[in-house]
Write a structure and sequence with these properties.
By secondary structure, this protein is mostly beta strands. It contains 4 helices and 16 strands.
Length: about 220
């Protein structure tokens, strides 16, 4: 059976989906040593009024689910099984546009170039019990999702407006000049890595003075279903 996965790892997923910023190509990379906002306490879910499924305005490829257990990202993994495999084994069966035998339920499929193509739904928990990523309240209608990286945290802004979820990725200029006022910047020296990684640890005052509109950009819209 052939597989065409959308997602390799959770951390790669964040960068594939949202972190399309020039800084990833720069010689300097910035992360935060601690979760944001500064002095905020982590929570496991958003407010109940925001519970539900939010589907990308560009299609059904990615859906976010918010409930009392946390935040989940639902994806569709495209796979294919050959007509020959179905014919020669008794495990699979195609009937009326549905494929049987992949899991307990039948799956819609379509035939092309001697293969039957179908989508398998996957669910990845982003926030919740025993998850390294941390969610913090930013305002009554917005949250910061702190994605755990190898060295620190990469923030992402989640905003709820008019039955929409707006996700903005962490962004900055190549030299990180927007962070100049943050005094505590630890440079990590990594062997055989030309990228300089800086761990930022702003004070509450320094964080409050940081222009949020300049570090959270590239918004993507998801519609509540």
């Amino acid at each position: 059976m052939k597989k065409y996965p959308f997602v390799a790892t959770l951390f790669q997923l964040f960068f594939c989906l949202f972190v399309f910023f020039p800084a990833t190509l720069a010689q300097k990379s910035f992360e935060f040593a601690n979760i944001l906002p500064v002095e905020a306490q982590p929570i496991t879910s958003v407010a109940p009024q925001f519970f539900g499924n939010y589907e990308s305005d560009k299609g059904k490829e990615f859906t976010y689910e918010f409930n009392d257990k946390g935040i989940f990202l639902k994806t569709i993994n495209i796979q294919a099984i050959s007509q020959k495999t179905i014919r020669e084994t008794g495990k699979y069966k195609v009937q009326n546009g549905y494929l049987f035998g992949v899991n307990e339920d039948s799956i819609p499929c379509f035939f092309e170039d001697s293969n039957y193509y179908f989508g398998v739904r996957n669910s990845i928990q982003l926030v919740g019990a025993d998850i390294a990523n941390q969610l913090c309240l930013n305002s009554p209608t917005s949250y910061i999702l702190n994605s755990k990286s190898e060295h620190g945290f990469v923030p992402m802004l989640l905003e709820f407006k008019n039955n929409q979820l707006i996700i903005s990725s962490f962004d900055y200029d190549a030299e990180g000049t927007i962070f100049k006022k943050i005094k505590d910047q630890q440079q990590l020296v990594l062997e055989n890595n030309p990228l300089s990684i800086y761990l930022l640890q702003p004070t509450l005052k320094e964080w409050q003075k940081t222009a949020k509109k300049e570090i959270f950009r590239n918004p993507r819209v998801f519609i509540k279903q």
